[in-house]
């Protein structure tokens, strides 16, 4: 999916340029930080989000048993703070540092591997 749907916009205050924005992909929803927030409910935005990366590592090592590799590479996304997430996705472009998880493409500054990747972001940005 090349676009995401804006399903909710919650400014931090009535005159704030910052907002919490709920985005919907074909496979999930997340709440991201937006500044300056120039979107409204119903907008369609490009599917490439930024993040402040805390940690990223390969989901498993190649010499691990197949069953454990399968279990560790399952896509997941868990909210751990207002805009913070941890999960497991897959690298779609290692050179550009782009991963995909539950239909959301997130640009990391650097990814240490190709294939399934576990990560934790302090904040995901629109």
Please give a handful of descriptors for the protein shown.
52% strand, mainly beta, 126 residues, 6% helix, elongated, 4-stranded antiparallel β-sheet
Query: How many β strands by DSSP?
Result: 10
For the residues shown, what is the average pLDDT? 94
Order of helices and strands: EEEEEHEEEEE
User: Percent of residues in helical segments?
Assistant: under 10%
Q: Which regions have little confidence, pLDDT < 50, spanning 5+ residues?
A: none
Query: SS-based structural class?
Result: mainly beta
Biggest beta sheet attributes? 5 strands, mixed, barrel
The number of helical runs is 1
The share of residues in extended strands comes to over 45%
Order of strands side by side in the largest beta sheet? 5-9-8-7-10
Structural commentary:
Helices cover 6% and strands 52% of the residues. The protein is mainly beta. The chain is built from 1 helix and 10 strands. It has a 5-stranded mixed β-barrel. Strands 3-2-1-4 form a 4-stranded antiparallel β-sheet, with no helix packed on it. The protein is elongated, with a radius of gyration of 15 Å. The chain has one helix at 66-72, and strands at residues 3-11, 19-24, 29-34, 44-46, 49-58, 76-79, 85-93, 98-101, 104-107, 116-125. The mean pLDDT is 94.
């Amino acid at each position: 999916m090349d676009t995401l749907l804006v399903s909710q916009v919650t400014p931090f205050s009535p005159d704030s340029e910052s907002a919490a924005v709920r985005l919907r992909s074909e496979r999930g929803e997340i709440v991201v930080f937006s500044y300056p927030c120039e979107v409204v409910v119903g907008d369609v935005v490009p599917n490439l989000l930024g993040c402040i990366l805390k940690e990223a590592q390969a989901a498993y090592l190649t010499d691990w048993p197949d069953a454990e590799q399968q279990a560790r590479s399952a896509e997941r996304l868990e909210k751990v703070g207002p805009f913070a997430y941890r999960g497991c996705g897959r690298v779609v472009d290692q050179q550009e540092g782009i991963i995909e998880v539950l239909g959301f493409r997130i640009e990391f500054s650097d990814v240490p591997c190709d294939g399934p990747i576990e990560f934790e972001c302090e904040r995901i940005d629109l």
